[in-house]
Design a protein that fits this description.
Length: about 220
């Protein structure tokens, strides 16, 4: 594994580009402040350089909250988003830091959808972002790089992307939601009974719990492993 000093690029830092993208965002983006030591630790565990947008976000932020906190882009952790990108992946996509994961979880949303970079197992497009959709539990190809994904979060039409998955008054509710939690819906969104987001019941649960439930349900339904 490379040292943290090798991963910090002071000549061509990716953060200046990410910050420019955030400054010109049409969706609300909140930058969570970073603890420098946690930033270094998370960067080392992820083994990406700060020249890359992902490395820059890990090293410079505790994470990003997009659109009232609806999308949470993982960084090095913060009280309101108490998960670092590498620690969140450990035990899910790899067992030991430094391993090449089959996919890497990089963000998620308030309704229990998870965004991941394909390491090779999700499709024939390694490096592209996939979305584990809560309304069908399928890994959906977004045909985007991580940088494209950031652009989508900052300037994309999120209402269109989440069509039929946002209830009336979601903004105020989601703003209060702990970034370590997501909503669990009943009936499940992937069932016929759960098709109308305004009629199903919802409760906050740990994101960890929802991710495990999604993955085990995929196995039960015969659509995942």
């Amino acid at each position: 594994m490379r040292t943290v000093e090798e991963l910090i690029n002071t000549k061509e830092p990716g953060w200046q580009y990410v910050k420019e993208w955030i400054d010109s965002a049409t969706n609300k983006v909140e930058i969570l402040p970073c603890n420098p030591e946690k930033g270094k630790d998370a960067l080392y565990k992820t083994q990406v350089t700060t020249r890359s947008p992902m490395g820059a976000i890990i090293y410079m932020t505790g994470g990003l909250l997009v659109d009232h906190g609806w999308i949470r882009i993982l960084g090095s952790g913060h009280a309101r988003l108490n998960r670092t990108l590498p620690d969140w992946n450990k035990g899910k996509t790899f067992n030991e830091f430094g391993e090449q994961p089959p996919y890497l979880l990089v963000a998620d949303d308030a309704i229990g959808g998870f965004f991941a970079i394909n390491g090779g197992v999700l499709g024939n497009d390694p490096g592209k972002v996939y979305y584990l959709a809560p309304d069908n539990l399928e890994w959906e190809a977004m045909d985007m790089t991580y940088s494209d994904f950031l652009s989508f979060c900052f300037t994309g039409d999120l209402n269109k992307f989440y069509e039929n998955l946002r209830w009336k008054g979601w903004e105020k509710e989601v703003e209060q939601l702990d970034g370590a939690k997501v909503y669990n819906f009943y009936p499940f969104l992937w069932t016929k009974e759960g098709e109308d987001i305004n009629t199903v019941s919802r409760k906050p649960v740990p994101a960890e719990e929802q991710y495990s439930l999604n993955m085990s349900t995929r196995v039960q339904l015969g659509i995942g492993h």
